[in-house]
Amino acid sequence: MLGLPDDITVALFDLDGVLTTTAVLHKAAWRNAFDAFLAERGDQSGPFTDRDYLDFVDGRPRLDGVRSFLSSRGITVDDATAGAIAEAKNAEFMAVLDRDGVTAYPGSVRYLTAARAAGLRIAVVTSSRNGEKVLAAAGLAEFVEHRVDGNTIVAEKLAGKPAPDSYLRGAQLMEVHPGRAAVFEDAISGVAAGAAGSFGYVVGIDRVGGDQAQSMRAAGASIVVTDLDDLLQS
After folding, report:
1. How many whole angstroms separate alpha carbon 194 and alpha carbon 99?
2. What domains lie within the chain, and their CATH numbers?
3. Marked catalytic residue, from 6, 7, 14, 230
4. Is 165 a catalytic residue?
């Protein structure tokens, strides 16, 4: 009834864009931070775009996203400058989060409810360092047994997505072999991480359209849906 193989016992969910609508807040905050940086240095390569977000930032740890995007523009900066861009982005994100709150996707709430009722164990694996706050604000913390977030990645020196390390750590915390866990991701980097970790099933959630579903399949998605509750009809 959950649209997963019968031997899957654990679900590892990304957070922003999978369970909550905060991905759009992240994208806007990144755009403002990068555009301010590019304008300050007089860069003529053009503004930060939605495609840049998907290709270089989405799903990655904060500093990895900074370096990935700047590298795409042929820009090299020192650690202090990269950190300043990342902190500017986070300050704006947190300000909007505090002002407007967080919304969980209704389809995701329905899926989490059905998964819990069916006995599927649930963890969250996110690159965000604000995972605990977002889960609490969205009213989703009750569903989650373990959380691996950006703070975990830094503290434990894990490689960020698209490396599988954070998802493998989630499986370890849940005491399950990766082959018996499903990964749920809206970012290409996250889908690639699930595939690289040899997880039993990788669900891509396409909230973008265009060629995103095709890119997710190419990155290793087992199935691509537009909302989590689509799986309840599988």
Report:
1. 33
2. 10-22+102-233 (3.40.50.1000), 24-100 (1.10.150.240)
3. 14
4. no
